[in-house]
Amino acid sequence: MREQVSRPSASETPSFLKILKIMKDLGAEYFRGGSNTFEAYQWLQNMEKNFDTTRCQEDYKKDVAVYYLKDDASEWWTSVRRHYGQRNPTWTEFRKEFEGKYFPSEARDKLENEFINMERGQKSVRELESIFTRLRKYVYRGQEDEAVMAHHFLRALRPDIENRLMSVTYQRVDELVERAVNVEMNIEM
């Protein structure tokens, strides 16, 4: 049975050690480095989600993140830290350095291009939705515009499904996905 994680109240500011304990209870994982941009991005997103959950103070975030670096990542941070001299880097600076190292702009550009050029294939609507959702977060412009994203999803559907749905303008991706799933089920009957 999983231990209950106690979340601090809105007025409570947990200590650094309390945050480390809660992060451990939440299943925070160590980041070892490497070249897998998805893994790096996911680690960073999980850290931020855990920071929100723990109501982590801004001045603790970088130190908590550094605590969860191991192997190559820890060595990388040691070398970056030297560049700051006597000044203690902030969470924002850590994040910028981390993204520069593990999620550089060319990797993000590649993923955005993969999203923009999603090829039509024989994937089911749900498979396509999974890929679409995974890549959507890497789009620089238009990511927040649901109508634009719905139009892009429509263009990525198999032609036999797209043709049955293109007469309507969809304002939300989830609405389009549900209709596309229904069309797909009717085609397969």
From TrEMBL:
Name of the protein this chain belongs to: Uncharacterized protein LOC104763049
InterPro entries assigned: Retrotrans_gag_dom (IPR005162)
Domain Retrotransposon gag: 64-159
One Pfam family matching this protein: Retrotrans_gag
